[in-house]
Every structure is written in C-alpha cells, then in structure tokens.
C-alpha cells in the first residue's frame, strides 16, 4: 500500500548550538542536582572559583546519576583542592602566556603555526591552563589575522596551520570562513588542523554550515578532539564524528592523564577502544600542564609509564597514544619515556 506520508525528518528539530551553549550549567548546586547528588562540603565557595563552572547540559546527561566520583563530573566541578598551592605549579605552566595572550600566533615548532583563534570554550575543564588566561573572546581579530597571514606568506617552511584556543569552534562558522579564506593563496600550506573539544562536549556544533565550510577547504584536514574518558562518547558524538570524517577530516584524540578520572588501565583502554569505534585514533596522552589549581589531578611519571605499559599489553599498537609532556622551550612535545629519570 502506498501512503501519502510526508518525507520523514532525518532528525527532530533541535536548538541551535549557540542556544545550547548559552544554556550551559554554571551553578554547582544545579549541576549536583542534575546528577542526583546532594550538596558536598568539598566545593569551592561560589565567588572563589575564579575560573567559573561551565558545562553543557548534553555533557552532564552523560554523567552517572548519584556517583560523586563520576569521571566526567570531576573534570568540571570546582572543588576546594583547587585553592591549594603546590610546588612547581604556576599560572604559566607552558611558558607562553605572553605570546598566547598577545597576538595569538605561536610558531614554536618547525613547519606548524598555531593560531589562538578564540579564547572561549563551551566547557571549563578544571585542569586547564586556560583558567589563568585573561584573554578576550576572539583573539584572532581581523588585524591580528592579517599579521598572521603575512607571517604565513613569508615563511615557506610552514606546511600546517593549527587553529586552537580556547576552542576555535566557539567562533561562528562565518568567522572561521574569514580566517581560512586566505589559505587558498598559500600553496605551501597543505594542511589545516583544528584542536577542539566542542564535538565532544557540544556535538550539535557540527552542523550543516560547519560541514559545508570544512568540506570546501582546499587543504587536507585534521581534527584533533579532546576526550578523557570513554563515557564522553555517545550517539550524538558518534554522529558528529561521522560527519567530520565524511567531510574529509582525519580524526585524532588527545587526552590528559587525570587522577580519579582516567588513571587506570581499564579506563584508558576503554577510552582508546571507544574513540576508535567513533573513527577517532588516539594521538597524545598528556601529562598535565602544571598550572596552579590542578595539582590534585597530577599523576607522577612512573605511574604514567606503568599505565602506558599496561595499554601496550592490551591494545594494538595503533591504538596506543603517545605519552608526552609540554615543557617551555622544547622544540616539540616530549615523550615521557625519553626523560632522563
Ligand atoms: C602542541 C603544539 C603544536 C602541535 O604539535 P604536534 O606535536 O604537531 O601535535 C604546534 N604548536 C604549538 C605551539 C603547540 O603547543
Ligand atoms: S581549552 Fe580545552 S581543556 Fe581547556 S577549558 Fe577549553 S576545552 Fe577544556
């Protein structure tokens, strides 16, 4: 029987990513209530957070109900431990606050130029160096971007432009379009890389306009995502990853090793397996930047190497991330195994 039903919608009408962004949870009490927890005594007093709580509701929905040790919750909940100071932890752990906060163009490594395209993020991760950055919403303002383009024109050793932040996907797609318009005149730049956590924490960001922009870029595309735990992936994240791949992007994931979140072999194995199920290859496993307020997340290098050894025993080689740390003045990320220890 042929019925005259209307064409079915592929997806239900949903709020745009900007509305979802604005609708993020910013209050600790509301966050705890949303995951079925009572108030806990170990929170930073409101007003003392400095770096405010911010987490999209879709990410909160992936937290386990009633679990005070949930690995997603611990990444975003401002706890009193952040107020502690610790030796070796400073406000400028990677030594480039001046350049990051200044013109937003970082050319530290051969062949790659990193552009701080935006200072905003949809989520505030408690371990992030960004907690101490006073930079504004849109670092790569037009004048600065012209300066960056001049730099790219003059230096033919630059093969790759990296959009980073903050989160570059916090920019409207038309802004991204403006940023990348000049790339077509730079034949030596053959790759565009995007470092972003948005497809994980707010997968709705990967919308039609964004995919149109990405597909049309005249260069090879790499998207480096940031997920620290398998539970950060769900059907919406899978769909966003599938769209990114269909647009021609190679997908990689970087994670930060975090005490209480992913510092065991089972959790890391699950993360690598789960990201590959979404078509994302593990790239880096970072030792955290030693920023003030993050010391309670730290894992020492011996334990980190043990965890890596455990991963090697359980996963195919291509699913084992590179364990690295970033140190001021280094010409690349530094593999932990090479440390003179
Ligand atoms: C991390 C980083 C890069 C990229 O390094 P890869 O090892 O290629 O991922 C480039 N520039 C800067 C300033 C960086 O911090
Ligand atoms: S830069 Fe990355 S780690 Fe830092 S707050 Fe933004 S999303 Fe989180």
From TrEMBL:
It comes from the Bacteria. The keyword S-adenosyl-L-methionine applies. Transmembrane segments: none annotated. Its cofactor is [4Fe-4S] cluster; pyridoxal 5'-phosphate. InterPro entries: Aldolase_TIM, EpmB, Lys_aminomutase/Glu_NH3_mut, rSAM, rSAM_sf. CDD domains: Radical_SAM (cd01335). It catalyses: L-lysine = D-beta-lysine. The keyword Ribosomal protein does not apply. Keywords: 4Fe-4S, Iron, Iron-sulfur, Isomerase, Metal-binding, Pyridoxal phosphate, S-adenosyl-L-methionine. PROSITE patterns: RADICAL_SAM. Residues 107-330 form the Radical SAM core domain. Belongs to the radical SAM superfamily. KamA family. This is L-lysine 2,3-aminomutase. It comes from Luteibacter flocculans. The gene is epmB.
